[in-house]
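Hey team,

Filing this mostly as a record. A colleague (T.K.) asked me to run one chain through the structure pipeline before their review meeting, and I want the input and output archived in the tracker in case anyone asks later how it was produced. No errors, nothing strange. Just documentation.

Input sequence:
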Amino acid sequence: MDIFVCIKQVPGTTEVEVDEKTGVLKRDGIDSKMNPYDLFAVETAMRIKEDNDGKVTVLSMGPPQASEIISEAYMMGADDGALFTDIKFAGADVLATAFTLAQGIKKLGNPDLIICGKMTTDGDTAQVGPEIAEFLDIPHVANVKKILEIKENSVVLEMDMPHTVEIVDVMLPCLITVDKDIYQPRLPSFKRKIATKDRQIPFYSLKDLDDHDEMKYGLNGSPTQVKRIFPPKANTDHEMWKGQGSELSGKLFDKLKELKFI
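Output structure:
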């Protein structure tokens, strides 16, 4: 089985500046890591590979330093990888990101299964995976919590819905997004790090894709743009009370009533 996993590099800190003109996060010079939900996606791909003699390819869109997470995926057991990087991809919203990744998948081949993390910690939209599937015109299932069976032409999944858990049998090729705890992600292996330290990570730019229309990528291809981003105000106001329990309980009741919590 040929499995593709879409992964993303996200800020490893909450201290991230925002470009006031574009509303885009300034990622240069900050600590970064693989999106935590993508670790579950890589682990899911590895489990399927081990049971079905498959091949796992990881791909990402981002600046050149995003190749670090592809190297990390190699250390987890991924077989191949690719990074789609171009200044013209910068500032993409979920639609432009999904379109770019869909074009990248077409460039790399025709996988049987595409796996994405449920969402990213720097966006929280959970839209990119399903939108990739729409661009590729393949079925997709979100919020997958279990892989029940891999058949010759389909996969049986357990899907976590808001009020129910549903079991679906989806034809291949398809795309799934996995939730946390579907499997416990394995740690990168030092042995694999040594074995894969010279493994190449191909870089692709806009000119390598089939669709060269710059208006479909990056900020140009983003119909939604952030109007304003600002950090939440921290409220450090507090009061210190001293007294007996009966007295303090009355004060606490009055305060909660004043604040309209009760």
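Quick notes for T.K.: The chain has one domain: 2-221. The longest strand covers residues 140-150.
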